[in-house]
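Submission sheet (multi-component)
Chains listed below:
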Amino acid sequence: MIMKYVIIGGDAAGMSAAMEIVRRDKQAEVTTLDKGHIYSYGQCGLPYVIDGRIPSTDNVIARSVETFRTKYGIDARTGHNVTNINSEAKTVSGVVLEKDETFHIPYDRLLIATGANPIFPDFEGSDLAGIHTLKTIPDTKAILNDLNDSVKQVTIIGGGYIGLEMAESLAELGKKVRIIQLGNQLANIFDQDMAELIHEEARQNGVELIFNEEVKGFNGEGHVQTVVTDRGEYETDFVLAAIGVQPNTNFLDGTGMHMTPKGAILVNPYMETSLENVYAAGDCASHFHRIKQKDDYIPLGTTANKQGRIAGMNMAGGANTFKGIVGTSVVKFFHLTLGRTGLSEKEAETLGFDYETHKQKAKDIAGYYPGNQEMQLKFIYEKTTQKLYGAQIIGGNGVDKRIDVFATALYHEMTLNDLLDLDLAYAPPYNGVWDPIQQIAKRKS
Ligand SMILES: Cc1cc2nc3c(=O)[nH]c(=O)nc-3n(C[C@H](O)[C@H](O)[C@H](O)COP(=O)(O)OP(=O)(O)OC[C@H]3O[C@@H](n4cnc5c(N)ncnc54)[C@H](O)[C@@H]3O)c2cc1C
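Outcome: structure written.
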């Protein structure tokens, strides 16, 4: 039987699935629908297109729509905005944007991979020119278009990872950068004591930090001129709002699909939703957290690709499972690398875990080898068994490698003591004879 596969969303999760289906079902009829015009691009690279480190948005496109059509035989459609699904009739409906025509497409198996959109602040004055969010290539072009020489002072609302990457990027362009943050620290996925290192790095690079203020609106004549908070008003020539994302799932209202309270589609390990023959993956779906042992929502490209791949394999007849996330991420912030995985101390506390923490500094390579750099590590682990719960590492070189080793250890439910048995690579230009994560384990186990 020839199967009709329909995928909504032509980026990381959607096209990972499409490629698996094409590989596994040679007779497949695959239709992919995206409201935009660009497929399979790395949003993660966009901050670096803005400061010119990456020359063009073309560089972040992995495969063009045309490649999917001609090389892989996928009916890859653009400008198709899906507005409804009918799981009884097994159809997807929507509007072809440029033509204002409706469409109805039947499916045997459907994947929802519609991602998440940045939350655009619904404040007074939000419609003024010069206020942006960053998600897509058109967003990037709009930002680049606005960042002319007359823009001197920029304001970023939100100190999450996009806010941090953009602070660096805009500072690289010679702009005076201010971050306004609702709470008392940047990068909430880190504990406050670790975030202090991020604050120090921000200030050393001329970034002004405003904490504990809530943005209420914007003033200006046609173009934004000030940002108004509950405690003050700040002059600005440009605003980037990076205050979080929400899953693109509104079009599913009324379908009865099971969702998390924040609107992410609940999926089981096979990436199946509560509706028969309907799968979901990526930023629009839930992400099972292995340490928390419950569904979570941590929308990242790495997870979208994995979930999309598994959804595609299963749609084409497989029975593969997504094993879950442990909450790993890494961010470059000026000269620092910020890595974290597992639970932070505040998460462990909220979850009522019986934990202990240990903090220690270590060198990335042999202390006597030129160019060594220091990193600050913080481990969170179960008090009695010393089973690992999480780690945060901030420093220069080598943070990324240690956080990945730790993430692997978390996946395998290792203890501090187990870390000491790992056969990690050592030569003076690459490591100490005891790796930094083993140095901590040695002290504490
Ligand atoms: C600036 C930036 C930096 C990032 N950096 C990192 C990083 O360093 N590491 C990391 O792991 N992740 C990073 N991410 C996150 C990562 O890009 C996302 O997790 C990933 O793109 C999610 O993929 P997705 O396929 O689930 O959703 P998306 O990439 O959002 O794709 C969803 C697609 O669905 C389409 N769509 C939505 N609704 C409809 C509809 N109703 N009808 C038709 N089409 C629709 C959209 O147009 C879109 O093309 C970054 C994101 C941004 C914005």
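Remark: Residues 4-39+62-115+248-316 form a domain with the FAD/NAD(P)-binding domain fold (CATH 3.50.50.60).
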